[in-house]
Amino acid sequence: MTSIQRWERLGLVFSAKGQAEWLHSHAAVPIAENIDGDFFRIYFSSRDRSNRSFTGSVVVDINNPTVVLDLSLDPILTPGRLGEFDDSGSMATWLVKYRGRRYMYYIGWNLGVTVPFRNSIGLAVSEGAGNFVRYADGPLIDRTLTEPHFCASCCVVPGDEIWRMWYLSCTEWRIGAHGPEHKYHIKYAESADGIVWNRDGVIAIDYADASEYAISRPSVIHENGIWKMWFSSRGPAYRIGYAESDDGKQWNRLDSHVGISAAGKGWDSEMIEYPFVFDHKGSRYMLYNGNDYGRTGFGIAMQQAT
Q: Is residue 46 part of a domain?
């Protein structure tokens, strides 16, 4: 029987407050990369005054993760060229290390007219510890005959035979009280190389009920033969959910077992979302965002023994 998780909040790590032009606000969708010993580089998405998205990073010691040791004042990813899929923003969503190459999957987005935006998934690559360079000017994952709206945040697990991806898939736009409103859940895809993806419409995490309309930012770990996923889900406000699977395709939602919710006060008191779960030296950590979709920054929690 799956036990209820217990997470101890360690505190707020970083928030953008105009440290550079591209750091006007937000530090969303955090990703941790172990760079040396107990030191981690954490990637995040910020916005400039024009609301365009950039990808930046900070360095922390996991033993004292709320103290930023280094902040990159130059962005790692910038918006693409005019008319390209990412000309309004490039938001890193997942990082994979495989056979000496790093794969940074990112959300590229354009402003819309009939709807506010359109998202796709792009890729930047790095040989070793070098700079990230766009793999192509176009996206890897975009609208198709059967997915006509948009795709966004993803988690990728590589393998010698099969690469697996769980990604956000928009199922509809509808007109609400304040204009167009999106609805999206999480689907599953496979690839032989991490570049060309086969999408067969497999729904990994579906809407729990009629009030739920946004499921995003999957974070998946394979442990003891079980696939475990943390994700965001939104009805009235974003919360973090949890699910388990034997095959990575069919999932059993266990949201009541996640063991972390919005705080009683402070930067993550109204919502909690965009989890990134990772292990280091026998401990499990979660990076996550709080109020206003990352405007208040990102924090970290540590899982406690149950």
A: no
Task: Express each pLDDT in 231-257 by its tens digit.
Answer: 999 988 999 999 999 999 999 999 999
Beta carbons of 184 and 216 less than 8 angstroms apart: yes
Q: Is 54 a domain residue?
A: no
Q: What is the pLDDT of residue 128?
A: 84
**pLDDT tens track for 55-71:** 999 999 999 999 999 99
Confidence of residue 2 (pLDDT cuts 50, 70, 90): confident
Based on the number of CB atoms within 10 Å of its own CB, is 23 exposed (0-12), middle (13-18) or buried (19 or more)? buried
List the CATH number of the domain containing 290: 2.115.10.20
**Enclosing domain of residue 143:** 6-12+82-304
Could you tell me how far CA 279 lies from the centroid of its own chain? 17
For residues 263 and 269, the answer to whether their CB atoms sit within 8 Å is: yes
Nearest to 66 by CA among 37, 96, 42: 42
In a domain, 23, yes or no: no
pLDDT over 70 (residue 199): yes
Which secondary-structure segment (H or E) carries 190? strand 179-191
Phi, psi of 182 (to 5 degrees): -90, 165
225 within a domain of the structure (yes/no) = yes
What total of structural domains would you count in the chain? 1
